[in-house]
TrEMBL record:
One Pfam match: Gp_dh_C
Protein name: glyceraldehyde-3-phosphate dehydrogenase (phosphorylating)
Top-level taxon of origin: Eukaryota
Enzyme class: oxidoreductase
Example GO biological process: glycolytic process
Family membership noted in the UniProt record: Belongs to the glyceraldehyde-3-phosphate dehydrogenase family.
EC number: 1.2.1.12
Keyword DNA-binding: no
Compartments where located: Cytoplasm
Cytoplasm among keywords: yes
Source species of the chain: Stereomyxa ramosa
Residues in Glyceraldehyde 3-phosphate dehydrogenase catalytic domain copies: 2-111
Main location: cytoplasm
A GO-annotated cellular component: cytosol
Length: 132
């Protein structure tokens, strides 16, 4: 079993979906021998200072509000297999991230790429069927 550095188009895809982020993201992937689940390690330079606790509160509120059913939030001690067949697109791991200072943070989020993506495709199908 090996960990292999690899390229990813995820940063470009985010820029295509969220135009304000176009050209502001870059990334790489590490291929690891696990079943489907991946983790994102996002390093962020904030425009406005914020504590890590403030960031966690905003993400938790979003996961319970407008993004409920799409984004999750956990303070549990977790490992990749905890997210197998998770229908959420992303689960923020509040214990894994850190703030280097009030304007530079690392945010960690887990996802089951195949399962979460499939659920978003189903969401899209339901949305389209309601419009017909």
């Amino acid at each position: 079993c090996n960990i292999t550095p690899a390229s990813t188009g995820a940063a470009k895809a985010v820029g295509a979906v969220i135009p304000e982020l176009q050209g502001k993201l870059t990334g790489m992937a590490f291929r690891v021998p696990t079943t489907d689940v991946s983790v994102v390690d996002l390093t962020v330079k904030l425009e406005k200072p914020a504590t890590y606790d403030e960031i966690k509160q905003v993400i938790k509120a979003a996961s319970e509000g407008d993004y409920a059913g799409i984004m999750g939030y956990t303070e549990d001690e977790v490992v990749s297999s905890d997210f197998l067949h998770c229908s959420l697109s992303s689960i923020f791991d509040a214990n894994a991230g850190i703030a280097l200072n009030d304007s530079f943070v690392k945010l960690i989020s887990w996802y089951d790429n195949e399962w979460g993506y499939s659920n978003r495709v189903l969401d899209l199908m339901v949305y389209i069927s309601k419009k017909l």
